[in-house]
Amino acid sequence: MDETILEIKDLNMVFSSGKSKVHAVDNVSFRIKQGETVGIVGESGCGKTTLGRCIVLAYKATSGQVLYHAADGKKYNIQAISKQKLRSIRKEIQMIFQDPYSSLDPRMTVFDIISEPLRANYKKIPKNEMEYRVQDVAKKVGLNPSYLKRYPHAFSGGQRQRIGIARALILYPRVIICDEPVSALDVSVQSQVINLLMDLQKNMNLTYLFISHDLSVVEHISDQVGVMYLGQIVEYASTDLLFHNPCHPYTEALLSAIPLADPDTPMDHIPLKGEIPNPSNLPSGCFFHTRCPYCQERCIRERTSLIRLDDGRLVSCHFAGKLPLHGIQAKVPR
Known about the structure:
Layout: E1 4-17, E2 20-33, E3 37-41, H1 48-55, E4 63-69, E5 75-77, H2 83-89, E6 93-96, H3 110-121, H4 127-140, H5 157-169, E7 175-179, H6 187-204, E8 207-211, H7 215-221, E9 224-229, E10 232-238, H8 239-244, H9 249-256, H10 297-301, E11 307-308, E12 314-315
Parallel strand pairs: 3-8, 3-9, 6-7, 7-8
Antiparallel strand pairs: 1-2, 1-4, 4-5, 9-10, 10-12, 11-12
């Protein structure tokens, strides 16, 4: 479907501490179509999680808009909506958190954890209906309904994340923000959870914003991918375009770090010089120029902005489309 369900427009999130200010999210804009998965990737501290929390209003953004096309056919700016109206549409946008160990209350049973959103959003829901919905969503995520009276400590990491997924699904949402939902899990369990998320998306017509630092996972699950650096989107394109033909030097460096399954194939890793700049004291010009192997004088002087190329992608680089960058198709045996 081509119908847009979520629009992020010029979103900014600034954290202040004394005299210093950190631009965790810096003028981010993109849109998500209904039923698709948009992956957000980047190094730790680039603003991925802050972006996701602004969308669900866990953080009130400093400026910008989060426009949600609700099930009632109307469009709402989540960042400037009344509490009464927010209550009616909040159940349509839910979040799966990164750590299944800290995101579940150890004093609550699994039944109480999953049913809590129902109690918070529906004051007079019948007990039998609540039990039916909890058992139904437990089955959907692969949890044995007979275990619902147990506590989180009795479950493995993968099972705990299934509990977190069930809690997000219990209100039958349309959009789910997945904040690194598999990064805290064993590799053997990650694929199970990823496949579960993809099956749920197909069966329930869900839309995902999938935040991760694992590029191989993002390539597998995403339709579109946005690359973040120091709070900015530096490249936004379809998965195939971005992975096989990157147009930003930072994207190329990230792709070069993807490990290969064949130990006999040498990696063409592109090491980035220097450290990530202090986000409270950002460099002039292009934020990436201090580490960019293609840096020129213009990059130091002029700040970049997202431009749209002929293939439809968005890139924040003065020399987008002109640099000899390589994607994962370059990783072939020598």
